[in-house]
Amino acid sequence: MSTNHDSSPLTGLGESEELDYAVSTCARCGYCKQVCTTHPYGNGFEAFSPRAKVHFLNELRNGRAELTPEWVDRLYQCTTCERCQEVCQTDIPLVELWEAARAETVKRGLGPMPVHLKFKEFADKNGNAYGEPNEERGRWMLPEHRPAEGAELLVFGGCTGSFKMPAMLRTGVSILQRQGIPFAYAGPGELCCGSPILRTGQIDSAKRLIAGNLDTFHRLGVKQVVTPCGGCSKTLKHDYPRWAKELGKPWEVEVLHFSEIYVRLLREGRLKPKKAINRKITYHDPCHLGRSQGIFDEPREILAAIPGVELVEMENVRADSRCCGAGGGVRANYAAMANDIAEKRIKEAIATGADTLATMCPFCQSSFAPLLQKMGNPLQLVGVEELLLQSMEE
Questions:
Q1: How far from 85 is each of 35, 265, 291, 303, 341, CA to CA, in Å?
Q2: Residue whose C-alpha is closest to residue 227's, from 292, 157, 291, 175
Q3: Which residues form the Cysteine-rich domain (predicted)?
Q4: How far apart are CA 355 and CA 381, in angstroms?
Q5: 335-344 contacts: CB < 8 A, separation 24 or more?
Q6: What is the pLDDT of residues 113-156, one digit of tens each?
Q7: Cis peptide upstream of residue 307 (ω within 30 degrees of 0)
Q8: Residue 18 — pLDDT band, cuts 50, 70, 90?
Q9: Average pLDDT, stretch 332-341?
């Protein structure tokens, strides 16, 4: 399904062959209902299931249903975790459909949720979804971090990594420097990748952010862009090439998540963890890193390379991993639901007997951290790269 949102699958509600295909091929099997992260919070009503939403969109398109506030609310109660898409028997790109539906609610003046509108207002004014002064985007950097002019690799911090949870970003850059890998950094020239704006259907604002970043990439002449954030890397990998074509701008870069950089260095023998890190660790697969990008093996390969680490897997891992509850704008607007989803994932981690919960997305980390503290810190929360850097130290 196309993600050209100016001609989204719901535009015109009756003129799209893509929407015809998406809604007519639904087998109504219910597998999506069984794995949906947010369906359990609909008081048992079928209307909150993915298959019901597909049916509703078909009815809406054919003029047999109305886009009521209740249905708008249901469309926004989705973390875009892709579990429904993973089990879909007819391969419907469901997350793209949900995002297109949200864009339609915005087009009709019925969406987004008020708190999501704040993301847009902040990004329009400040260039980031948190409303922070964008000239302070580089405040995460340590004194020893030295960006290089003309480097082919650009570090893209992302809003959460830059302003809220900088540990993974700092550690990644420290590892690059230890390996003698030059990196560029745009500083205030970096804008929000657009993910929280895109996922909530606010296309015009997202388009401006994407265009600004595309211009920056081209101006700096970079060949690779690396980020610690699963949401940023998903957006840069999957949405930017399509939007570059739509906007008539060049797309000349390879996008990498930091985990992919670390694994390359390990396989090349350039990165050699030596110091034992004696911990029993369970790993959380971020939705936008795992299901969205297929990055399941890399974090585990990194952990396996660190002496002393014992990996114990949770019941639901890899493509079956449970969501942290933060994605798709859910944590911002449905905090109680998001916290309950995250708490269930934490309890699954505790059940492994691990002493440490590791992940590779600052957004997941920001979801788990306050709940772990509230629960008395039954697990230590770390980024995989933090363990890697510790193991590199003499």
A1: 10, 33, 9, 28, 19
A2: 157
A3: 155-237, 281-368
A4: 9
A5: 337/38, 337/41, 337/77, 338/79, 338/367, 339/371, 340/41, 341/37, 341/38, 341/79, 342/367, 342/368, 342/371, 343/371, 343/375
A6: 999 999 999 999 999 999 999 999 999 999 999 999 999 999 99
A7: no
A8: low
A9: 97
Contact 359, 286 (CB under 8 A): yes
Question: Which residues are within 8 A (CB) of 126 and not within 5 positions of it... i.e. 6 or more apart?
Answer: 132, 133, 134
In total, the chain counts a number of residues equal to: 394
SS3 293: coil
- CA distances for 84 relative to 90, 95, 287, 292, angstroms: 11, 8, 12, 12
The average pLDDT across 278-301 equals 98
**Token code pair at residue 175:** 């590892």
Q: Report residue 31 CA to chain centroid gap.
A: 23
Q: What is the mean pLDDT of residues 216-223?
A: 97
Of 100-104, 202-206, 217-221, 235-239, the one with minimum mean pLDDT is 100-104
Considering the chain, what is the average pLDDT of its residues? 93
pLDDT exceeds 80 at position 4: no
Instruction: State mean pLDDT over 152-166.
Output: 97
Q: Are 198 and 330 in contact (CB under 8 A)?
A: no
Q: What token pair was written down for 189? A: 């020239």
How far is it, in rounded angstroms, from Cα 125 to Cα 117?
Answer: 12
- Number of helices (H) and strands (E) in the chain: give both, helices first: 19, 8
The percent helix, strand, coil of the chain (3-state, each to 5) is 55, 5, 40
C-alpha distances out from residue 185 to 75, 182, 311, Å: 37, 10, 34
CB of 262 within 8 A of CB of 298? Answer: yes
Q: What is the DSSP string of 324-362?
A: -S-GGGHHHH-HHHHHHHHHHHHHHHHTTT-SEEEES-H
Domains and CATH numbers, the chain: 5-107 (1.10.1060), 114-263 (3.40.50.1860), 272-392 (3.40.50)
User: What is the predicted pLDDT for the residue at 9?
Assistant: 39
User: Would the pTM of this model clear 0.90, i.e. be above it?
Assistant: yes
Phi, psi (5° rounding) for residue 383?
-90, 145
